[in-house]
Amino acid sequence: MSVIVVGSMAFDAIETPFGKIDRIVGGSAVYVAYAAGNFVKPIQLVSIIGADFSEEEMAELKSRGAQFEGVEIVPGKKSFFWSGRYHLDMNSRDTLITDLNVLADFNPVVPESYQGAEFLMLGNLDPTVQKKVIQQLKTRPKLIVMDTMNFWMEIALPQLEEVLKLVDVLMVNDSEARQLSGQFSLVKAAREIMKMGPKYLIIKKGEHGALLFHEERVFFAPALPLEEVFDPTGAGDTFAGGFIGHIAKTKDVSFENMKTAIIVGSAMASYCVEKFGPERLREITKEDIDNRIREFVQLVNFDIELV
Ligand code: AMP
After folding, report:
1. Each residue of 126-150: pLDDT tens digit?
2. How far is the CA of 151 from the centre of ligand 1 (A)?
3. Where are the domains of the chain?
4. Nearest of 2, 52, 1, 9 to residue 237 by alpha carbon
């Protein structure tokens, strides 16, 4: 069983009300890999990096099951760079810099060794790149999950709409769902987005949890009320990694199993926000993950007797 993960591999500069860091590894594929590697191996990365991406970082990812055959390394050029500043409420942020660098002319090549992968996670990235990866797969994976963001809705909407026709699950946050559908009500937004292609839609609502839509069904998973949120960067990608990791581990693509996958994704995301960048994800053990999943079960477990 294997998962192909497409996404950015980056350096980030992050400013939150609690601190500031000028350079830390990030990128959607990095977060997805750190999260999914707890559940499934190998994680077959498709991305591009510059000469600045360190050997140690690659070794760390490899030790967690990441494969690099599909990662192009461009000598003499810089990796993707992103910088963001969070507002006081930590729910919203301003993007200060998006330097595409090597990402600007990325032409992904899916290596032969990745063919036959059962699951595909299209992390947040240029939709044209996401589509090129799907087109190179000789056998369609069991499940194609796609993440995206407002940045691509603003500069590449037609290309984004093309990819939407090809995927099974789309993940966006609430404001992106509203932007994509032109609907304020999330129920109406979900209906519109599912007409665009994906049969399943996950709408992330930050500290207010996540919604899963499929046909007329809806499932809600809360986010764990955390005492401290230090840095939310990568929470969405980490959620995606936990989600696809659980689905790939269980090989079950039913709505019922997606409910569990959302809880797993939420548990992983709740760890991600505790420290800068992917730092906390590097520390946690299987026991930590299991404990947090138990906390989620406790959070929503109640008895009611209807008379
Ligand atoms: P998240 O907080 O889950 O939205 O993800 C933050 C990560 O996404 C950071 O590590 C960034 O490097 C990466 N990122 C930000 N903007 C983009 C973009 N336009 N394309 C790909 N990755 C991005």
Report:
1. 999 999 999 999 999 999 999 999 9
2. 10
3. 3-300
4. 9
Tokens 């764990």 correspond to: 224
Confirm or reject: Cβ of 125 under 6 Å from ligand 1. yes
CA atoms of 183 and 180, how far apart (whole Å): 8
Residue 222: name the closest of 212, 230, 231 by CA: 212
Q: What is the pLDDT of residues 181-237, one digit of tens each?
A: 999 999 999 999 999 999 999 999 988 999 999 999 999 999 988 888 899 999 999
Rounded distance from Cα 28 to ligand 1 centre (Å): 6
Q: Tell me, in angstroms, the distance from the centre of ligand 1 to residue 306's CA.
A: 46
Asked if residue 229 lies in contact with residue 208, where contact means CB atoms within 8 angstroms, the answer is no
**Amino acid, single-letter form, for residue 125:** L
CATH of segment(s) 3-300:
3.40.1190.20
Ligand 1 close to Cβ of residue 181 (< 6 A): no
- For 103-121, give one letter per residue: b (16+ CB within 10 A) or e: beebebebeeebeebbbbb
Main-chain phi, psi angles of 181, to 5 degrees:
-100, -20
Residues 75-91, buried b or exposed e (16+ Cβ, 10 A)?
A: eeebbbbbbbebeeebe
Q: How far apart are CA 158 and CA 178, in angstroms?
A: 17
> Which residue's CA lies nearest to atom 9 of ligand 1?
27
72 alpha carbon to ligand 1 midpoint, in Å?
19
